[in-house]
């Protein structure tokens, strides 16, 4: 599937295409992770719940190592880790599980319009009253400003006596904007409400400490930090306060009753190793990602007039750059740079191409949202790849703009907002 790229005058070092720059969608499994987890398929294949033979003991011992490694990444104790199939499940478990067990306290939840669907949709289900056995809930979805931040006074004002849970993501998956976790945690503690954070994008990219930040529940997904797909975890605080959860699944009572089902031993071992690497290589990984991202962004901005960066340019994930290219159709741009894997600011729903709800919530119009590209770098990207991508993107933007009548009008000094369009 790989070829050498020769296109691009600015490219000196050889790069191999296709180039992967969609690390917010998923990351390549680190070869060190693969090496660690492989023996747990065919050699140490035991069920971690088998208590009466060595096959089970070995699997269980490996799970406990992974539990310690995962806990260390976020500063909790191993007993507070509940392994799941990923962040979608972890978010569902946190929200629906708390909603059920704290129904006596209240039915109000606070979240934000830029959350991932795996947070928004369970909350909407609660709001609609469509979760079996659960009464309807009220949800406050806080708006965000132009950079993607929630207003902390608005958060404080939204919390009511019947508020049970605040769910605000650590870092946004489309624009990278970081929420101030410590400040949010403080507000939640003062007001006596639980704080859940979806840290799927943040893990391994910003420091996370559930104690320092006052986090009660936290979702993780291994495949976003160089671990395998289909495995994740929910951190559930055991002390101060002890968080209680109703499980989503009934069964053998694994994971302290919170998540029944035979543990995915190879996946969990891989997640543990990925967490260990993320923690040990944290400083160098982040510095490298930030340097590559800045090189990419500066290169693109220097060569594409009018291109703008979305999200908070400072307070954001180190590996991500979301750029709008006015008068360029994002999907056309992606087609034009098909040797580069990136994401667009359009969400493909079954029927149509909808502009991203995250970009729209920042105040971007449909046009600008559709002209946006998310570049997300990873541990395996190189400087040569970045330079190659800058070159390809810049040429393609120039080519597409040459074909754009709107761009031509802008070049001639026409103010498009003042044009009266007639439809025939
Ligand atoms: C990827 C992602 C999810 C979903 O995680 P899965 O493990 O793939 O289910 C949830 N939230 C955010 C912010 C994500 O980026």
Radius of gyration: 23 Å
Which hetero compounds are present in the coordinates? Answer: pyridoxal-5'-phosphate
Number of helices: 15
Helix share, percent = 25-40%
Distance between the termini: 47 Å
CATH topology call of the largest domain:
Aspartate Aminotransferase, domain 2
| CATH class (first level) name of the largest domain | Alpha Beta
The structure class reads: alpha/beta
The main pleated sheet reads as: 7 strands, mixed
- In CATH terms, what is the architecture of the largest domain? 3-Layer(aba) Sandwich
Unreliable sequence segments: 6-11
Number of domains: 2
In CATH, what is the homologous superfamily of the largest domain?
Answer: Type I PLP-dependent aspartate aminotransferase-like (Major domain)
The counted number of beta strands is 17
3D structure, described in words:
The longest helix has 22 residues, at 282-303. Strand 5, helix 5 and strand 6 (138-142) form a beta-alpha-beta unit. The chain is globular, with a radius of gyration of 23 Å. Mean pLDDT is 94; it is low at 6-11. The chain folds into two domains: 2-21 and 282-418, Aspartate Aminotransferase, domain 1; 31-280, 3-Layer(aba) Sandwich (Aspartate Aminotransferase, domain 2), CATH 3.40.640. The chain has 424 residues and is α/β, with parallel strands linked by helices. 49% of the residues are buried. The strands form five sheets. A seven-stranded mixed β-sheet has the order 4-10-9-8-7-5-6, sandwiched between helices. Strands 11-12-17-14 form a four-stranded antiparallel β-sheet. Strands 1-2 form a two-stranded antiparallel ribbon. The protein is built from 15 helices and 17 strands. The N and C termini lie far apart (47 Å). Residues 86-88, 116, 118, 169, 173, 198, 200-201, 221, 224, 232 line the site of pyridoxal-5'-phosphate (PLP).
């Amino acid at each position: 599937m790989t070829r050498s790229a020769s296109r691009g005058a600015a490219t000196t070092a050889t790069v191999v295409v296709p180039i992967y720059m969609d690390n917010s969608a998923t990351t390549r499994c680190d070869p060190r992770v693969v090496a660690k987890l492989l023996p747990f398929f065919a050699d140490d294949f035991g069920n971690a719940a088998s208590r009466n033979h060595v096959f089970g003991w070995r699997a269980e011992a490996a799970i406990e190592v992974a539990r310690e490694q995962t806990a260390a990444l976020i500063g909790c104790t191993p007993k507070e880790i509940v392994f799941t199939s990923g962040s979608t499940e972890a978010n569902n478990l946190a929200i629906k599980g708390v909603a059920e067990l704290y129904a006596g306290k209240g039915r109000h939840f606070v979240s934000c319009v830029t959350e991932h669907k795996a947070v928004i949709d369970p909350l909407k289900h609660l709001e609609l009253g469509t979760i079996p056995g659960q009464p309807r809930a009220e949800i406050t979805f806080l708006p965000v400003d132009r950079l993607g931040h929630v207003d902390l006074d608005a958060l404080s004002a939204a919390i009511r006596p019947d508020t049970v849970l605040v769910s605000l993501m650590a870092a946004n998956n489309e624009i990278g904007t970081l929420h101030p976790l410590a400040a949010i945690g403080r507000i939640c503690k003062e007001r006596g409400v639980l704080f859940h954070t979806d840290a799927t994008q943040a893990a391994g990219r910003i420091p996370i400490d559930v104690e320092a930040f006052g986090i009660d529940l936290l979702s993780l997904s291994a495949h976003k930090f160089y671990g395998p797909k289909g495995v994740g975890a929910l951190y559930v605080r055991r002390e101060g306060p002890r968080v209680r959860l109703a499980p989503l699944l009934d069964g053998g009572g694994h994971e302290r009753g919170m998540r029944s089902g035979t543990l995915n031993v190879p996946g969990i071992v891989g997640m543990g190793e990925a967490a260990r690497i993320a923690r040990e290589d944290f400083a160098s990984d982040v510095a490298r990602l930030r340097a590559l991202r800045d090189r990419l962004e500066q290169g693109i901005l220097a060569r594409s007039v009018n291109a703008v960066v979305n999200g908070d340019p400072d307070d954001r994930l180190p590996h991500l750059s979301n750029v709008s290219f006015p008068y360029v159709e994002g999907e056309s741009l992606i087609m034009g740079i098909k040797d580069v894997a990136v994401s667009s600011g359009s969400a493909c729903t079954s029927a149509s191409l909808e502009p991203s709800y995250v970009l729209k919530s920042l105040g971007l119009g449909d046009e600008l949202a559709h002209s946006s590209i998310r570049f997300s770098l990873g541990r395996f990207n190189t400087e040569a790849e970045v330079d190659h991508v800058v070159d390809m993107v810049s040429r393609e933007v120039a080519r597409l703009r040459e074909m754009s009548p709107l761009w031509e009008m802008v070049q001639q000094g026409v103010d498009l907002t003042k044009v009266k369009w007639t439809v025939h």
